[in-house]
Amino acid sequence: MEDKRRCKRLPFSIPVHVYGRTERGLPFRYVTVAKSVNMNGALLPLAPRVKQGQTILLVNSFTQEERECRVVYVDAKHRNKKKKVAVEFTKEQGDFWHVFSPTPKLATISQRQNVA
To answer: Mean of the per-residue pLDDT values for the chain?
Structure first.
């Protein structure tokens, strides 16, 4: 798989509930642990069969926050086991995982001169 991530994944294990529909259109609810996260999404083991491009809903088990995601990769190697599924958030809405610190805002020269 070619690495197309916009930012590095961090190796945190964060429990999530996943809601969606299988490839056959049947609704599912699945509890799993996101194994690798970044500001734009995660990699998670998933037993229900999903396909690339479909939309699912993640719920952070710690905060109960919900976030709509798009499936961007499904590992096809394991037929009868949990598959590694990469998802990306459909909208940028802040730190869903609560593990990233905000980027510090640097004062411009004119702002520093006004303070002095």
So the answer is: 84
pLDDT digits 0-9 by tens, 22-56: 888 999 999 999 999 998 999 999 999 999 999 99
Q: What is the mean pLDDT of residues 83-95?
A: 90
Q: Can you read off the two tokens belonging to residue 50? A: 């999903």
Q: In degrees rounded to 5, what are phi and psi of residue 16?
A: -140, 155
Amino acid occupying residue 86: A
What one-character-per-residue DSSP string does the chain give? -----SS--B---EEEEEEEE-TTS-EEEEEEEE-EEETTEEEEEE-S---TT-EEEEEETTT--EEEEEEEEE--S-SSSPEEEEEEESS--S-SSS-PPPPPPPPPHHHHHHH-
Q: Go through the domains of the chain in sequence order and give each one's CATH number.
A: 14-115 (2.40.10.220)
CA distance 71 to 64: 21
Q: What is the pLDDT averaged over residues 63-87?
A: 89
